[in-house]
Amino acid sequence: DGLVVSENMKSNNADVKIPKSELEAEDRGAEEERPRESDSNILDLSSDYPRDKHISIQRHLADLEKLADLREDERKPCPLCPEEKFKACYSHKLHRHLQNLHWKVSVEFEGYRMCICHLSCRPVKPNLVGDQTLSKMGAHYHCIICSATIVRRTDMIGHINRHVNKGESESRFITVGAPKSSYEVVKESATDVQVLPNHSTPQKTDSYFNPKMKLNRQLIFCALAVLAGERKPIECLDAFGATGIMGLQWAKHLRSSVKVTINDCNENSVTMIKENCHLNKMKVKLNIKEEDDGETVGNGENSDTIEVTKMDANVVMHLRSFDFIHLDPFGTAVNYLDSAFRNVRNLGIVSLTSTDISSLYAKAQHVALRHYGCNIVRTEYYKELAARAVIAAVTRAAARCNKGIEVLLAVALEHFVLVVVRVLRGPATADDSAKKVRYLIHCQWCEERVFQKEGNMVEENPYQQLPCDCHGSMPGKTAVLLGPLWSGALFNTGFLRRMLLEAVQYGLDEAQPLLKTLLCEAECTAPKHFLTQSLGDENKQEECGVYIRTPSTFAESYLVHGKRKSEEVLRSAAKRQRAEHSTEHPPFYYNIHRHSIKGMNMPKLNKFLNYLSEAGFRVSRTHFDPMGVRTNAPLAQFKTVLMKYSTPTYVGAQAEGPVHLPGEIQVGEEVPAAAVVKVEEAELVEDDKSAAAVIKVEKAELAEDDKSAVAATVFTESYPTHCAAE
């Protein structure tokens, strides 16, 4: 009858015929859509181009009905359903079936409808019922772009949106470069980068760019700038480039001091990195394995060259040696630590950013145990706990390569945990670093904590190491063993000073306040003490109100002129550095709100820091917690000072002032079992002047297990309920 049977219909076991004129028209349209060979943006992924659309993808309902060949006098099967699911029927019933079942729940995209299909296109595991095997026919959709089969309609919509965000075209059924109009140009630190519209969603884009990580990028840039001042030129690697923003900032500001390599395993990301290099007028040095002559020159006067590689991060770190390596994968970075420490040069720097905060912040403890081999719980100092857990994993990875580490910087904020360490080659330094990985004993009642003592001998009563006596006064087990964790210092004061100098020099405004806080935290001094103290150095500068030692003095121990320094010079430099910073900052911190006394107004945080400092303790604020206090005072003394300078929360009380305990109790002495606090009068609210009330607090008993908080108050006299004082 002049009809040709479609090959696709034969594969779907449906006896459907299509007019020959329609097939010829489709062939002519496909030939017109054949891509030009000169179009370099189109990547031909299939040899049998063009590919036919599935029969479930149609423009109009009438086109779907033509496949069924509706005739009033004959029964016709559904072209999208097997015969055992929908038997052949007359045209009026088949029309309702196609309209209500297939067409109504279709997914629309650029004029096409991807109807639901019930054919056996999708492989489904058979169900064994007795001796009979029944093949399950699952409903699914066929993607118009990649011919994938998706079960759910919502998943199909998301699948199509991901194709659109990646710049993949449906007209040719192949991957094409996204049009220039779909790119967004983002500028950060005088560097322009092109990003896709959904750049902030890592699961749906290849070129992930997070504007909230700007502070993280500035801190890493400052660390690299300090290293670039020690020796030139240095080879640095951004192992996970994405858009290439970080490597572009390195090359644009540090220029000839660094040789930048940006790596990414995704082809679309590598393409975007090259385009961003040309956008910033940088030369691009392609990987040796790539085609052409190996170098592509961008337009512009800038002669800086950036090497772009496309391979796995572990592979590129195994093949080459670097002075500076930055790891910023999506999630944890523990899978890349062994490769990073294998070839990093002596006195080089490894920085890693971990964004798996759900496991590090003790929300998924089993994941933290699996990734970091560390047992952690949610505590008031959970952010510092996360930083020490990451450093412990870094230490073990470096020790496996016979290398030790020196922690230069550890920052834990809302979105990430950043750790910057310097690599010290040699088994002796590896042993010294490994000894600083210890377990932590944490009391779950009062949240006192202490690192377990060194040694392999098992103690009969490990609770004796805790300063508190909760185990003696409480039944059962009161403490938990956390770790292993890094027990050493989290900051290097001299390195932070030079980082602050670089931040001021390059105008990194967001990093400067954080670096000042880190400097105060590293020295464990109050901010005003840090600004006024003398550094005892002739070559010093004052930048933004903070004295900064110049690199000519402090960095002298790390400067490399031509050949590497001998071990004796490095050992003397390390001794000199230890002499300058003999006292490390105390580990962990206390939250002032967590230990506030019920019924009392605590003093302002800065005033409380002065009170602790006057009592003879080292004290500073911490970036981990805005209301945290880092101090070497035990928790009992911390609460005693807080109790002394807190005021009762009754109406008409003085703004602030110390509460005088009986017998003039001084800080450092034991608090007696009872304290008497007398309140003579309580004023009424202005709108209630009908009565007067005198409330006398006869006795305030202190609980035996907590010698710093009021446990009970006895009110001897009170007046009617409408009295505001009551």
Automatic annotation (TrEMBL):
One of its GO terms (biological process) is tRNA N2-guanine methylation. Keywords: Isopeptide bond, Metal-binding, Methyltransferase, Nucleus, Phosphoprotein, RNA-binding, S-adenosyl-L-methionine, Transferase, tRNA processing, tRNA-binding, Ubl conjugation, Zinc, Zinc-finger. Gene3D superfamilies: N2,N2-dimethylguanosine tRNA methyltransferase, C-terminal domain, Vaccinia Virus protein VP39. The keyword Zinc applies. Residues 143-163 form the C2H2-type domain. It is found in: Nucleus, Nucleolus. Residues 17-39 have a biased composition (Basic and acidic residues). One of its GO terms (cellular component) is nucleolus. Residues 1-47 are annotated as: Disordered. It catalyses: guanosine(27) in tRNA(Tyr) + 2 S-adenosyl-L-methionine = N(2)-dimethylguanosine(27) in tRNA(Tyr) + 2 S-adenosyl-L-homocysteine + 2 H(+). GO terms for molecular function: tRNA (guanine) methyltransferase activity; tRNA binding; zinc ion binding. Its main location: nucleus. InterPro entries: SAM-dependent_MTases_sf, Trm1, tRNA_met_Trm1_C, Znf_C2H2_type. Belongs to the class I-like SAM-binding methyltransferase superfamily. Trm1 family. This is tRNA (guanine(27)-N(2))-dimethyltransferase. It comes from Loxia leucoptera. The lineage of its organism: Eukaryota, Metazoa, Chordata, Craniata, Vertebrata.
